[in-house]
Specification:
mainly alpha; disordered C terminus; 21 helices
């Protein structure tokens, strides 16, 4: 074989130059200054209570300030982390330049007040991220970057102009902030809404457009953190900005819920068959973005924005700490022993129900016959899953298993409710983002599907079907040309 005939030369690792570049330090300090400035803008918004348009083509409203604060914070963490992670890389200046350019593109995207500016920022964001995916230059990285460029900028660039004519036909201008005119559900508008949903699905890597995300694991870990904490969230931002078009028809909103719920359920199943750390995190992102889109389809756009913000914090932490989770031991040796007891069941169910009640009390969702009931059910199932994961670990002391679960889960839900309240206030001035959808039989089917998916995952029934396991494994496998193994670059 070629690998056996190759002569391997072992030498010293490349070391940084005696006078390292000042670009990483300068850009790191600059992005943290942008975060401080974003906090200032957030304080001004709360003082004014309304947004303003400083340059005509951009608008500073509630969505802008919350996304600016979030994105610059994530970017600051990635910049700081990358100063050590990328030390010695020959193209370190290019890497930091792309990360900073990506930050500026996202900041422009969330503040865009015109379709031209929004589309230009969207395209720039995709191109810069594809460059980050391909950083390093090996064959797998180049192939992954090419796949990202094909999926994200080009397809979305083709879909972007379609909503323009439909939206402008119902308004006097194309300013995104002046969308208080009622949009009727005409065929052009429904076509535009479909194009927007397709764009959000591709950008957020929903099934079946998740291949580009799973193939991007060749990217440096800081780039992966920025991608999963920021890049994929643009699908949710798109739906919020064009909420008057997306919410024009209740049947279309049902389609949004179905699309999001399908990806949320399949993302959870796909994660169960991935053995690698970053691959599992990627599948988790597919599922979490499905939850975000489903929340938008229920009419809770504030919940969708809250989800993308908190998911960004969680996923950035998980990716930047992924190196510490890599172990070299037999899987059965590291797998925790689990046991279910009556006391554990009582604690788990009680914590889940208390979490749902707390969420309802803090947010007011789930008290009427609307999509809030389904949203509350998702909170209960999420709490149930997290509580059961801890309670069944027999290696932990009983005090930690039974006492710490509600002591941690309930305050965490209180924090979530508080963040939700702040985001809801920030988005209150945006049109068509505060009215939940009425319950239908389709919502009931979605609720049953989530419960069944939870039971299937928790019981491990899917492991007994070789066909299902192989299908899930194939669905998580990126294209062959983007895999690291099996390449001969000689």
């Amino acid at each position: 074989m070629a690998g056996e005939r190759r002569t391997t030369t072992v030498g010293q690792l490349p070391t940084p130059e005696s006078q390292p570049s000042r670009v990483p330090v300068a850009l790191t300090r600059l992005v943290w200054l942008l975060w401080v400035a974003s906090l200032g803008v957030l304080a001004v918004w709360f003082h004014r209570g309304e947004g303003w348009a400083p340059a005509g083509m951009v608008v500073v409203d509630g969505l802008t300030v919350v996304m600016w604060t979030t994105v610059t914070f994530f970017s600051g963490v990635v910049h700081s982390y990358s100063r050590r992670y990328m030390a010695g890389d020959r193209a370190v200046d290019r890497f930091f330049g792309r990360v900073f350019a990506f930050t500026l593109a996202v900041m422009l995207l969330v503040a865009a007040d015109g379709l031209v500016v929004f589309g230009a920022a969207w395209l720039a964001m995709g191109l810069v991220m594809s460059g980050l995916i391909g950083h390093g230059g090996d064959r797998a990285a180049r192939a992954a970057a090419a796949l990202a460029r094909r999926y994200v900028p080009r397809e979305l660039g083709a879909a972007r102009p379609r909503p323009r004519g439909a939206v402008v036909a119902h308004r006097s201008d194309d300013r995104l902030r002046r969308r208080r005119t009622v949009v009727t559900a005409s065929p052009p508008v429904l076509f535009a809404a479909g194009a927007l949903l397709l764009a959000a699905m591709v950008q957020s890597a929903l099934v079946p457009f998740h291949a580009w995300l799973l193939s991007s694991m060749t990217a440096p870990t800081p780039a992966s953190a920025l991608m999963h904490a920021g890049f994929v969230n643009a699908g949710g931002v798109l739906l919020v900005r064009f909420a008057p078009v997306v919410t024009v028809d209740s049947r279309f909103m049902l389609a949004v819920v179905l699309v999001g719920a399908t990806s949320a359920i399949l993302g959870k199943l796909l994660k169960t068959v991935r053995a690698d750390v970053k691959g599992g995190l990627g599948c988790s992102t597919v599922g979490q973005m499905g939850f975000m889109i489903a929340q938008a389809g229920l009419g809770f756009f504030a919940a969708a924005v809250t989800h993308l913000v908190l998911h960004g914090f969680y996923k950035a932490y998980q990716f930047l700490g992924s190196g510490g989770r890599v172990t070299r031991e037999h899987p059965t040796a590291s797998a925790p022993t689990r046991s279910t007891t009556a006391a554990g069941v009582a604690v788990t169910v009680g914590t889940a129900l208390a979490g749902g009640a707390l969420f309802t009390a803090l947010t007011g969702k789930g008290t009427g016959l609307n999509g809030g009931l389904l949203l509350t059910l998702l909170v209960v199932l999420t709490t149930l899953h997290a509580a059961r994961d801890v309670v069944t670990r027999t290696a932990l002391p009983k005090a930690a298993r039974y006492g710490a679960v509600p002591a941690v889960a309930l305050p965490a839900l209180a924090v979530y409710g508080g963040v939700y309240g702040v985001v809801e206030r920030l988005l209150a001035g945006l049109p068509a983002v505060g009215e939940p959808e009425a319950l239908t039989a389709v919502h009931g089917v979605v609720a049953v599907a989530f419960v069944l998916a939870y039971l299937v995952v928790e019981s491990g029934v899917y492991r007994r079907s070789p066909r299902l396991y192989v299908w899930l494994l194939n669905a998580t496998s990126p294209p062959a040309e983007t895999r690291l193994e099996g390449h001969d670059d000689s």
